[in-house]
Amino acid sequence: xxxxxxxxxxxxxxxxxxxxxxxxxxxxxxxxxxxxxxxxxxxxxxxxxxxxxxxxxxxxxxxxxxxxxxxxxxxxxxxxxxxxxxxxxxxxxxxxxxxxxxxxxxxxxxxxxxxxxxxxxxxxxxxxxxxxxxxxxxxxxxxxxxxxxxxxxxxxxxxxxxxxxxxxxxxxxxxxxxxxxxxxxxxxxxxxxxxxxxxxxxxxxxxxxxxxxxxxxxxxxxxxxxxxxxxxxxxxxxxxxxxxxxxxxxxxxxxxxxxxxxxxxxxxxxxxxxxxxxxxxxxxxxxxxxxxxxxxxxxxxxxxxxxxxxxxxxxxxxxxxxxxxxxxxxxxxxxxxxxxxxxxxxxxxxxxxxxxxxxxxxxxxxxxxxxxxxxxxxxxxxxxxxxxxxxxxxxxxxxxxxxxxxxxxxxxxxxxxxxxxxxxxxxxx
Amino acid sequence: xxxxxxxxxxxxxxxxxxxxxxxxxxxxxxxxxxxxxxxxxxxxxxxxxxxxxxxxxxxxxxxxxxxxxxxxxxxxxxxxxxxxxxxxxxxxxxxxxxxxxxxxxxxxxxxxxxxxxxxxxxxxxxxxxxxxxxxxxxxxxxxxxxxxxxxxxxxxxxxxxxxxxxxxxxxxxxxxxxxxxxxxxxxxxxxxxxxxxxxxxxxxxxxxxxxxxxxxxxxxxxxxxxxxxxxxxxxxxxxxxxxxxxxxxxxxxxxxxxxxxxxxxxxxxxxxxxxxxxxxxxxxxxxxxxxxxxxxxxxxxxxxxxxxxxxxxxxxxxxxxxxxxxxxxxxxxxxxxxxxxxxx
Lengths: 429, 344
Prior knowledge:
The structure holds 2 protein chains of 2 kinds. Chain A is 48% helix and 12% strand. By secondary structure, chain A is mainly α. The longest helix of chain A has 38 residues, at 330-367. Chain A is elongated, with a radius of gyration of 33 Å. By secondary structure, chain B is mainly α.
């Protein structure tokens, strides 16, 4: 045994030790992480620096930090003027179909586009022309062009347009620094930080709603099961005489509500949850509502057993008996007398379940049964970054790390709450 | 069996002979097995019924055979197909037919792949089994020793290291662990330009390197759980009287820990390890996807769901639940064998 030395207040170690003790006693860091998460979930989408689903193609895969945007050097598209016969000074139109997904190249029609178009100046045959008006219809861009010189059959090149550089105004709020992406960009050039903020809101909403739904169902069923559970030996069976005493032997437990509920929970535990989720999304389609339903289906069973055990204890207490003598209805006893007693336990179980729900949500989104790609759930973001692990690992590390941190914080907080509110649930630790 | 419900139970315990006590134990075991059998039966009926009903609500499975253009099949063929698949029968007839076939070991024919479901499952099970076994061995090798160390050296640096590992393992979802492992061992660490370990896939011939990353990714979380369990039960036992007595009478440190304490502390981890293993046999879907592992979770379940292939889906659900229930029963029986105080 080492002897503890008492530190004087003049020793800085005293304060360090005190601070360390404070950190160990209260879950400060987990609470900070969770508060940041909740704030991000509430105001995140409104203060996100960049657009959620629209990226700047030039910045794709760029690592965290300032983006050094390189203009594309090769021609990306163009239109042929070889067969055209256009006298000088006339206006003609040409249309160009955007080569890839229109979403990335979205144009507002604000004229901003005009600066971004170039043509192949090196070629001696390129005519001297002027773009007067540019508009967009669906994925087709229509150019109105004035020819400054005669464009006569056969003498001209193809005019090339650098259409890759069209969309650069995905930034939404001016107070964020220019060209600075805190967490890099993903494979279509979307800002990972903005998507993370949006994803926080979506994940919190999904997990919160499903947790509340699951908690309501689980606690109700647990209360009912605990309250209806048989006090003594089950009553189906037969009696025998042994040494002059009458003994009762049971064969089967009675088919009571409690028996039904606990059996059902047992069956539910036997089902692998991913399978349940996949089957349900197969039947009802993929979407937020279905995902919440699936998560609630996963969440409820964790409550029933614990709440039932707690109810079994509380219902034997005197105040329940007096309530019954005073003529309270079953509902009133459950709601006014037993429910407050199990609430602590329910909160602890809920905190401990939240982390597993977040994991479940991200796993489902990862597998493709949950939130669908353009929507930035953290699991979806991780899954999308999986193919680019070699060139842009931050696409996996950022959302994956976020999930990890939040779950870690919730685990800490759940353990602390359990020790505080309901030490009976505690194992030796 | 005859003594099952006879009043032999109610001889007062001080009047019982040893043979009688053993007999009662045996009866308890049989009673437990019967009860378990009954509830397993209910589970299987419930789960397959649920899946059967759900698939009933979904698209017509015949649509699988029709190309999107809509002119690959005549009305006559359509009706014939429906008859072949038993679409015209009422629900309960179809369900009981399926149960009957299943009891004879015939899980039907996969619609999308035109193969017997049993063949598909049989072909995919070895890969899943190897993955689960590898992950399980890793989890036990990492979890139980670190748990013992953390309990024995409680409050020291090693305890914090072990608990930190456990926290990381519990908080990181398997896909994040897997991707980080791939990044480190496939992208970062290279030998002469070749990656240290492959990023995924399972070669037909055995290659130890293929197994390392998937098994670690799969086993990490379970190792954390096992470590916490071992640590807490070890702490409980190291605190007990008989350990103090053994120490007091001069039994060596190693003997106390490994012979007296560890044997008793292993009860909870062993049972939970069995359940973990059965969970993994149900296809470690995420790990299989990340490491493109041709196992039952990905190749049977996931694709059955995506293809709307309901015979395959029902078959896999059935096999999954069967595996889980068998392992849960084994875990319960193992519990009583390890710890004779526990009654079934």
